[in-house]
């Protein structure tokens, strides 16, 4: 059994009218959208149980995924941020991309500027002072240093949300698949 607090804080995923996962909202907001007809249940992916919400005169079943029936206004005006220290740290989750440290962070040009490296999203990473001075004016390979994640241009927040959602779904499906395999193996013994 799960308790009321868990239920209330369980996120509901909202899909746009054209089935793009766009946001994560709380139960109260989901109930409002369903009751006003601005959203409907989605059941093309398995994602857990419905939550039964009891009102005096009815019971509403809120599924883990809902789809807007109204056209969703894309957040306009977003553009790729400039390559600033603040934005690079944010993209890299305030973590040194060489050793994982979260302290004394600086910005490193993977291909040093002295060797023609540009100040662009794909050549700039967060590095702690220690890694940065160790690397100095060289390429990471020359120092046996490896990037944890290849540097990329930040994505539109909505696109990023969708990508993370589907990645998470895939992981869940793989986990389910491996459980099934085990069960088959046990049954076959
Ligand atoms: Zn480091």
Architecture overview:
The structure is a single chain. A hairpin with a 4-residue loop joins strand 4 and strand 5. This protein folds into two domains: 74 residues, no CATH class; 59 residues, Orthogonal Bundle (DNA Binding (I), subunit A). The protein is built from five helices and eight strands; from the N terminus they run H-E-E-H-E-E-E-E-H-E-E-H-H. 32% of the residues lie in helices and 18% in strands. It is an alpha+beta fold. A four-stranded mixed beta sheet has the order 2-1-6-3. Strands 4-5 form a two-stranded antiparallel sheet. A two-stranded antiparallel sheet has the order 7-8. The two termini are 33 Å apart. The mean pLDDT is 86. The structure holds zinc ion.
Instruction: Tell me the number of structural domains.
Output: 2
Order of helices and strands: HEEHEEEEHEEHH
Low-confidence residue ranges? none
State the separation between the terminal residues, measured CA to CA. Answer: 33 Å
- Average per-residue pLDDT, rounded, comes to 86
Helix count equals 5
- From the spread of the alpha carbons, the general shape counts as elongated
How would you write the strand order of the largest sheet? 2-1-6-3
**What fraction, in percent, of the residue positions are helical?**
25-40%
Beta-strand percent range: 15-25%
State the major sheet: 4 strands, mixed
- What gyration radius follows from the Cα positions, in whole Å? 23 Å
Query: How many β-strand runs?
Result: 8
Quick overview of this protein structure:
With 189 residues, the protein is α+β, with helices and mostly antiparallel strands. The protein has five helices and eight strands.
């Amino acid at each position: 059994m799960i308790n009321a607090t868990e239920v209330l804080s369980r996120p509901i995923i909202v899909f746009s009218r054209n089935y793009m996962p766009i946001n994560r909202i709380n139960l109260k907001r989901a109930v409002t959208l369903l009751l006003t007809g601005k959203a409907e249940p989605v059941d093309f992916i398995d994602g857990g149980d419905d939550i039964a919400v009891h009102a005096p005169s009815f019971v509403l079943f809120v599924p883990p995924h809902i789809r807007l029936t109204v056209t969703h206004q894309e957040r306009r005006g977003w553009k790729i941020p400039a390559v600033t220290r603040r934005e690079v740290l944010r993209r890299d989750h305030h973590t040194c991309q060489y050793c994982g440290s979260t302290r004394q962070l600086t910005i490193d040009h993977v291909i040093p500027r002295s060797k023609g490296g540009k100040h662009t999203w794909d050549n700039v990473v967060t590095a702690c002072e220690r890694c940065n001075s160790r690397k100095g004016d060289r390429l990471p390979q020359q120092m046996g240093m490896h990037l944890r994640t290849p540097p990329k241009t930040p994505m539109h927040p909505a696109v990023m949300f969708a990508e993370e959602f589907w990645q998470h779904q895939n992981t869940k499906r793989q986990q389910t698949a491996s459980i099934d395999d085990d069960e088959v193996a046990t049954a076959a013994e």
